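Two records follow; treat each independently.
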Amino acid sequence: MIINALGGLENPNAGPTGGPSATSRDLVVDGRALDDARASGLTAVNVTLGYVMGDFPPYEHTLDEIAVWDDLIAAHPENLLKVRTADDIRRADRDGRVGVIYGLQNAVQTGDDPARVTTLAKLGVRVVQLTYNPANQLGSGCMDPSDGGLTPSGRDIVDALNEQRLMVDLSHSGERTCLDAIAHSTRPVSINHTGCRALTDLPRNKSDAELRQVAERGGFVGIYFMPFLTPSGHATAEDVVAHLVHAVNVCGEDHVGIGTDGAVTAIDDLDAYRVRLAEEVAERARTGSGATGEAPDTLPFVPELTGPGQFHRLARLLAREGWSDDRIAKVMGANFLAFADRTWPA
């Protein structure tokens, strides 16, 4: 199985660049995107829906985007399957479909009302990231200089997520908020898309202490295909391998996977894409939602790991590193599935 702990299904050539500034109504999930996803061997992907940033009412916008994805999956039953349980991922694998996991990249939409977590769970949300880059009412994002830690509201929301058996995702969080949430949660937690700060000291990457504590409590860490993997911002496939190797050395081979933070379909016209990307980077900087390491000339993907062959290409590189077939299978999807078995309701 190939399970992407954070990614996309859109065709970026037929819509916006993707990412948190795009809404689900903007993204184009067309025949090419679906064909590419299936050709890649993708079994399931955690897609970002709902409020992340921008001028939307967070909770209402999230409910609207859930409805958009429900309609999209209903329109493509032969290709897509909504994932509520770990067994749904297994069913997608048997059926040759792509499992769609509903995930949030900001929990600001919960407000101070844990009951909203129950509503989101009933609607099929299965992954809830506590913060994006800035702080919210729950805690500090990685770009909050105060690194204030998990708030009382944050503890209440983590309790509600535990009760509903949803994944508590600590990607983008500040270090103190991350460590506080790991300690407070009664269930294993995840960092679904990150890099290793020991290799590249940028805020979006996680320290060894964060990685280790997630693993020690039975959690999951996904490594992304992002510019933050290298100080230059021009990440290569070898950088992805290096961060995976480090994460496995810190966490053990049973707790690491991939969370690419990108779609499967490759960009056709990079020149036009760079124009749109520069506008998005500028807007993120203006609103305080960007992260150190973003720049107009740093592509938010690894050029060598794009298109339908990206996952198999990575597997070959890991084999060249001397990894066994069993370890590669764990990192490409089996570890996320095992974590889902431990976390989600049956």
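The next record belongs to a different protein.
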Amino acid sequence: MGKIRQILVVILYVLAFALAICSILSLFRNAEIRYIKMLDFPRIQFFILSFVILILIIITSKKWQWFKYLLVVGLLTGISINTFFLINYTSLVSVNVPTAKNLKTSDDQFSLLLSNVKMTNRKAQPLLELIDLKKPDLILAMEVDGWWDKKLKVLENEYPYSQHTINEVTYGMVLYSKFPLEKIEVDYLANENVPSFKSTISLSDGKNISFHSIHPVPPTHFKDLPDNAGQQENALKKLGKEIKGRKLPTIVAGDLNDVVWSNVDELTGTKNILYDVRVGRGFYNSFNAENFLMRWPLDHVFVTEEFRLKKLERLPKIGSDHFPIYTELVLVNNAAHLNTK
């Protein structure tokens, strides 16, 4: 029994050391080393494990040697680092996008459903049932191949306006809209296999908004898929330049293949222009729907200051490795600056 306890203690100390090192290295998340970048993703898991192991070390330690103090300092440092990023997605901070209140009849309300369907998922019915239940005004589906495009065509009666850019390398994209698409451009921001959409959408009262649909490649390598090597998040940087010159209220939505607490402002250059609907409200972890222990937010909605948020939901599983995300937004007239929220 004594030997087993010694082994468990050693494992505990090794885990404590590894968590502390990983949390500290995660500060260099924008480095070109993709393995360091990946440490930016599991911050929730790092925080929880660090806290649990810290408690275990305190409880089980009878004699305090120098290395135990070092491990405790390392764990506390890691907890502090991860708290710095995670706290923005709790109710301890103010929301970035104000909650819609005292709505006026002149305010435009509309809903958006995002879904990375997972190209290899061959169960379309769960998604179609969710769409029928929520009845969103806009639907953005990602990882759409030829099979998924055919299955989604049943939406055409309810959604007369659409854009389809299909491929077989998990980056096909489809946008369905109940509102007229006055203008839509398909761009390949950083990779010839990875489309994005820039749409001008005319709402029910004739007001126009700009809607950017994006699904950039992840910051790591996957065999036979478009690779991010050397691109340095160029897709987001190019998108940011467009948004800085915006003339309309703007929404950016999609599977960014990056977590919300990543440095999106720096990557896009849109500080004080784009606001995250999650801030002050919760994580709404959209990935991985297939693994409860490894979940973080990858599917995002960012808006400019003219919008208010009425509802934000993570929807049930649809057979994909992503949960769909549903939002209800309000475009208000003469919107005050967000500092008045």
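Discussion point: The CA atoms of residues 216 and 256 lie 6 Å apart. How would you locate this feature using only the token line?
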